[in-house]
Write a structure and sequence with these properties.
It contains twelve helices and six strands. The two termini are 35 Å apart. The strands form two sheets. A four-stranded mixed beta sheet has the order 2-1-5-6, with helices on one face. The protein has a two-stranded antiparallel sheet with strand order 3-4. With 271 residues, the protein is an alpha+beta fold. Helices cover 52% and strands 10% of the residues.
Protein backbone atom coordinates (compact mmCIF):
# COMPACT_ATOMS: atom_id res chain seq x y z
CA UNK A 1 0.00 0.00 0.00
CA UNK A 2 1.46 3.38 -1.00
CA UNK A 3 1.91 6.32 1.39
CA UNK A 4 -1.07 8.21 -0.04
CA UNK A 5 -3.38 5.20 0.41
CA UNK A 6 -2.29 4.80 4.03
CA UNK A 7 -2.87 8.51 4.64
CA UNK A 8 -6.37 8.37 3.20
CA UNK A 9 -7.24 5.29 5.25
CA UNK A 10 -6.04 6.98 8.45
CA UNK A 11 -8.16 10.04 7.67
CA UNK A 12 -11.23 7.91 7.07
CA UNK A 13 -10.71 5.73 10.15
CA UNK A 14 -9.33 8.10 12.75
CA UNK A 15 -10.24 11.68 11.89
CA UNK A 16 -11.72 12.42 15.30
CA UNK A 17 -14.26 9.63 14.84
CA UNK A 18 -15.82 11.37 11.83
CA UNK A 19 -18.10 8.82 10.22
CA UNK A 20 -18.46 8.56 6.44
CA UNK A 21 -21.81 10.44 6.38
CA UNK A 22 -20.37 13.12 8.68
CA UNK A 23 -17.30 13.46 6.47
CA UNK A 24 -19.50 13.94 3.44
CA UNK A 25 -21.52 16.56 5.32
CA UNK A 26 -18.34 18.34 6.41
CA UNK A 27 -17.07 18.43 2.85
CA UNK A 28 -20.14 20.41 1.82
CA UNK A 29 -19.32 23.13 4.34
CA UNK A 30 -15.56 23.50 4.01
CA UNK A 31 -14.19 27.04 3.65
CA UNK A 32 -11.00 27.64 1.68
CA UNK A 33 -9.20 30.92 2.33
CA UNK A 34 -7.01 31.99 -0.60
CA UNK A 35 -5.61 34.96 -2.49
CA UNK A 36 -5.45 35.03 -6.32
CA UNK A 37 -1.77 36.02 -6.27
CA UNK A 38 -0.66 33.04 -4.14
CA UNK A 39 0.80 30.19 -6.17
CA UNK A 40 0.37 27.83 -3.21
CA UNK A 41 -3.32 28.71 -3.02
CA UNK A 42 -3.59 28.32 -6.79
CA UNK A 43 -2.61 24.65 -6.42
CA UNK A 44 -5.64 24.02 -4.23
CA UNK A 45 -7.97 26.12 -6.41
CA UNK A 46 -6.90 24.02 -9.40
CA UNK A 47 -7.50 20.86 -7.39
CA UNK A 48 -11.02 21.97 -6.41
CA UNK A 49 -11.91 22.85 -10.00
CA UNK A 50 -10.26 19.87 -11.70
CA UNK A 51 -11.76 17.42 -9.16
CA UNK A 52 -15.15 19.08 -9.74
CA UNK A 53 -15.82 19.53 -6.03
CA UNK A 54 -16.44 23.28 -6.24
CA UNK A 55 -20.01 22.96 -4.84
CA UNK A 56 -18.55 21.36 -1.69
CA UNK A 57 -16.03 24.11 -0.97
CA UNK A 58 -16.79 27.73 -0.16
CA UNK A 59 -14.04 29.97 -1.52
CA UNK A 60 -13.11 32.93 0.70
CA UNK A 61 -10.79 35.52 -0.82
CA UNK A 62 -8.54 37.28 1.68
CA UNK A 63 -7.34 40.83 1.17
CA UNK A 64 -3.79 42.13 1.22
CA UNK A 65 -2.05 45.13 2.78
CA UNK A 66 1.55 46.31 2.57
CA UNK A 67 3.36 46.92 5.87
CA UNK A 68 7.05 47.85 5.72
CA UNK A 69 7.23 46.40 2.21
CA UNK A 70 5.78 43.10 3.43
CA UNK A 71 2.42 41.80 2.16
CA UNK A 72 0.09 40.71 4.96
CA UNK A 73 -3.21 38.93 4.37
CA UNK A 74 -6.43 40.35 5.78
CA UNK A 75 -9.81 38.79 6.50
CA UNK A 76 -12.81 40.01 4.48
CA UNK A 77 -14.86 42.68 6.24
CA UNK A 78 -17.95 40.49 6.21
CA UNK A 79 -16.22 37.28 7.34
CA UNK A 80 -17.77 35.91 10.55
CA UNK A 81 -14.31 35.60 12.09
CA UNK A 82 -13.61 39.29 11.55
CA UNK A 83 -16.42 40.16 13.95
CA UNK A 84 -15.55 37.34 16.34
CA UNK A 85 -11.86 38.27 16.54
CA UNK A 86 -12.38 42.02 16.40
CA UNK A 87 -9.71 42.41 13.73
CA UNK A 88 -9.11 41.77 10.05
CA UNK A 89 -5.60 40.52 10.75
CA UNK A 90 -5.45 37.06 9.14
CA UNK A 91 -2.87 35.94 11.70
CA UNK A 92 -5.51 36.30 14.40
CA UNK A 93 -7.33 33.42 12.69
CA UNK A 94 -4.26 31.46 11.60
CA UNK A 95 -0.95 32.26 13.37
CA UNK A 96 0.99 31.02 10.34
CA UNK A 97 -0.52 33.89 8.38
CA UNK A 98 -0.40 31.94 5.14
CA UNK A 99 -2.81 30.89 2.45
CA UNK A 100 -4.27 28.50 1.50
CA UNK A 101 -6.11 27.71 4.70
CA UNK A 102 -8.92 25.16 4.98
CA UNK A 103 -11.47 25.72 7.74
CA UNK A 104 -13.75 22.86 8.81
CA UNK A 105 -17.26 23.39 10.22
CA UNK A 106 -15.99 22.49 13.71
CA UNK A 107 -13.34 25.25 13.33
CA UNK A 108 -10.38 22.93 12.88
CA UNK A 109 -7.88 24.46 10.48
CA UNK A 110 -5.50 22.94 7.98
CA UNK A 111 -2.73 24.84 6.20
CA UNK A 112 -0.19 23.87 3.52
CA UNK A 113 -1.42 23.09 0.03
CA UNK A 114 -0.33 19.45 -0.12
CA UNK A 115 -1.95 18.59 3.23
CA UNK A 116 -5.18 20.27 2.13
CA UNK A 117 -5.17 18.36 -1.15
CA UNK A 118 -4.57 15.05 0.68
CA UNK A 119 -7.45 15.75 3.05
CA UNK A 120 -9.89 16.78 0.32
CA UNK A 121 -8.95 13.71 -1.70
CA UNK A 122 -9.83 11.54 1.27
CA UNK A 123 -13.19 13.07 2.21
CA UNK A 124 -14.71 14.81 -0.82
CA UNK A 125 -16.43 12.44 -3.26
CA UNK A 126 -15.43 13.08 -6.87
CA UNK A 127 -15.80 11.27 -10.20
CA UNK A 128 -12.33 12.51 -11.14
CA UNK A 129 -9.06 10.94 -10.01
CA UNK A 130 -5.87 12.98 -10.08
CA UNK A 131 -3.68 10.09 -8.98
CA UNK A 132 -2.45 7.24 -11.19
CA UNK A 133 -3.42 3.70 -10.25
CA UNK A 134 0.17 2.46 -10.59
CA UNK A 135 2.20 2.75 -7.35
CA UNK A 136 5.27 3.68 -9.41
CA UNK A 137 3.47 6.48 -11.24
CA UNK A 138 2.01 7.73 -7.96
CA UNK A 139 5.56 7.91 -6.61
CA UNK A 140 6.57 9.93 -9.68
CA UNK A 141 3.72 12.34 -8.98
CA UNK A 142 4.97 12.76 -5.41
CA UNK A 143 8.52 13.28 -6.68
CA UNK A 144 7.46 16.13 -8.95
CA UNK A 145 5.31 17.67 -6.22
CA UNK A 146 8.30 17.60 -3.86
CA UNK A 147 10.65 19.19 -6.40
CA UNK A 148 8.27 22.12 -6.70
CA UNK A 149 7.10 22.44 -3.10
CA UNK A 150 10.38 21.67 -1.33
CA UNK A 151 13.21 22.58 -3.73
CA UNK A 152 11.93 25.46 -5.86
CA UNK A 153 9.15 27.26 -4.03
CA UNK A 154 10.89 28.22 -0.74
CA UNK A 155 13.84 29.90 -2.47
CA UNK A 156 11.69 31.88 -4.89
CA UNK A 157 8.94 32.85 -2.45
CA UNK A 158 8.50 36.61 -2.54
CA UNK A 159 8.39 37.16 1.25
CA UNK A 160 11.78 35.45 1.53
CA UNK A 161 13.24 37.54 -1.31
CA UNK A 162 11.81 40.72 0.22
CA UNK A 163 13.29 39.89 3.64
CA UNK A 164 16.71 39.18 2.11
CA UNK A 165 16.65 42.59 0.40
CA UNK A 166 15.36 44.43 3.45
CA UNK A 167 17.41 42.84 6.23
CA UNK A 168 20.26 40.79 4.77
CA UNK A 169 21.80 43.25 2.33
CA UNK A 170 20.80 41.49 -0.89
CA UNK A 171 20.84 43.74 -3.97
CA UNK A 172 17.77 45.92 -4.36
CA UNK A 173 15.89 44.80 -7.44
CA UNK A 174 12.18 44.25 -8.11
CA UNK A 175 11.49 41.14 -6.00
CA UNK A 176 9.35 39.35 -8.60
CA UNK A 177 12.19 39.46 -11.15
CA UNK A 178 15.15 39.44 -8.76
CA UNK A 179 18.25 37.63 -10.02
CA UNK A 180 18.31 35.49 -6.86
CA UNK A 181 14.73 34.36 -7.43
CA UNK A 182 15.25 33.75 -11.14
CA UNK A 183 18.40 31.74 -10.45
CA UNK A 184 16.66 29.22 -8.22
CA UNK A 185 13.60 28.94 -10.44
CA UNK A 186 15.81 28.30 -13.46
CA UNK A 187 17.87 25.74 -11.53
CA UNK A 188 14.70 23.99 -10.35
CA UNK A 189 13.28 23.97 -13.86
CA UNK A 190 16.45 22.20 -14.98
CA UNK A 191 15.75 19.46 -12.45
CA UNK A 192 12.10 19.29 -13.47
CA UNK A 193 13.02 19.05 -17.14
CA UNK A 194 15.31 16.08 -16.50
CA UNK A 195 12.51 14.27 -14.65
CA UNK A 196 9.73 15.19 -17.09
CA UNK A 197 11.75 13.86 -20.03
CA UNK A 198 11.23 10.43 -18.48
CA UNK A 199 7.72 10.80 -17.04
CA UNK A 200 5.75 13.18 -19.24
CA UNK A 201 3.27 12.35 -21.95
CA UNK A 202 0.71 15.03 -22.60
CA UNK A 203 1.03 16.09 -18.94
CA UNK A 204 3.63 15.73 -16.19
CA UNK A 205 3.09 11.99 -15.63
CA UNK A 206 1.65 10.30 -18.69
CA UNK A 207 -1.35 11.57 -20.62
CA UNK A 208 -3.76 12.15 -17.74
CA UNK A 209 -3.93 15.19 -15.48
CA UNK A 210 -2.44 14.48 -12.04
CA UNK A 211 -1.67 16.34 -8.85
CA UNK A 212 1.84 16.88 -10.19
CA UNK A 213 0.39 19.27 -12.77
CA UNK A 214 -1.34 21.28 -10.06
CA UNK A 215 2.08 22.08 -8.62
CA UNK A 216 3.96 22.47 -11.89
CA UNK A 217 1.57 24.97 -13.45
CA UNK A 218 1.65 27.68 -10.72
CA UNK A 219 5.44 27.39 -10.55
CA UNK A 220 5.82 27.83 -14.31
CA UNK A 221 3.50 30.83 -14.06
CA UNK A 222 5.81 32.29 -11.39
CA UNK A 223 8.84 31.49 -13.50
CA UNK A 224 7.54 33.29 -16.56
CA UNK A 225 6.69 36.23 -14.31
CA UNK A 226 10.29 36.19 -13.07
CA UNK A 227 11.58 36.50 -16.63
CA UNK A 228 12.39 32.84 -17.27
CA UNK A 229 12.16 31.72 -20.91
CA UNK A 230 10.10 28.59 -20.57
CA UNK A 231 11.06 27.45 -24.07
CA UNK A 232 14.55 26.77 -22.67
CA UNK A 233 12.93 23.71 -21.08
CA UNK A 234 11.14 21.99 -23.99
CA UNK A 235 9.35 19.21 -22.07
CA UNK A 236 8.21 21.57 -19.34
CA UNK A 237 7.03 24.03 -21.98
CA UNK A 238 5.03 21.31 -23.73
CA UNK A 239 3.34 20.26 -20.50
CA UNK A 240 2.59 23.92 -19.69
CA UNK A 241 1.00 24.54 -23.07
CA UNK A 242 -1.07 21.37 -22.83
CA UNK A 243 -2.31 22.37 -19.37
CA UNK A 244 -3.49 25.70 -20.74
CA UNK A 245 -5.84 23.76 -23.03
CA UNK A 246 -7.64 22.17 -20.07
CA UNK A 247 -10.93 24.00 -19.54
CA UNK A 248 -10.85 23.97 -15.72
CA UNK A 249 -7.23 25.11 -15.68
CA UNK A 250 -7.79 27.99 -18.06
CA UNK A 251 -10.92 29.14 -16.24
CA UNK A 252 -9.09 29.09 -12.91
CA UNK A 253 -6.18 31.09 -14.29
CA UNK A 254 -8.51 33.62 -15.90
CA UNK A 255 -10.32 34.06 -12.59
CA UNK A 256 -6.97 34.64 -10.84
CA UNK A 257 -5.88 37.41 -13.17
CA UNK A 258 -4.64 35.61 -16.26
CA UNK A 259 -2.13 33.12 -17.54
CA UNK A 260 0.73 35.29 -16.30
CA UNK A 261 0.94 36.67 -12.75
CA UNK A 262 -0.75 40.11 -12.91
CA UNK A 263 0.77 43.15 -11.23
CA UNK A 264 -2.64 43.86 -9.72
CA UNK A 265 -4.46 40.55 -9.22
CA UNK A 266 -8.22 40.59 -8.75
CA UNK A 267 -9.56 40.82 -5.23
CA UNK A 268 -11.10 37.40 -5.59
CA UNK A 269 -11.36 34.64 -8.15
CA UNK A 270 -14.85 34.41 -9.66
CA UNK A 271 -15.10 30.62 -9.70
Amino acid sequence: MCIRDRYQRRVRERDCSMSAPAASNAASKLRLYYHPSSSAALRVLLFVMCKRIRPSVELVAVGARLVDKVVLWTLPKDDPHTARLGTRDFKALSPEGRVPLLLLPDQRMLSQSEAIIHFLTAIAPSPVSLLPTSPWERALVEQIVAIVACDIHPLQNLPMVQLAIRELGMAEEPPARHRFRAHFIRSGFGSLESVLKKTAGKFSVGDALTEADLFVLPQVRNGIGAGITIEDFPTLARVWNNLLEVKEVRETLDACGGVLPPKNPPREAKL
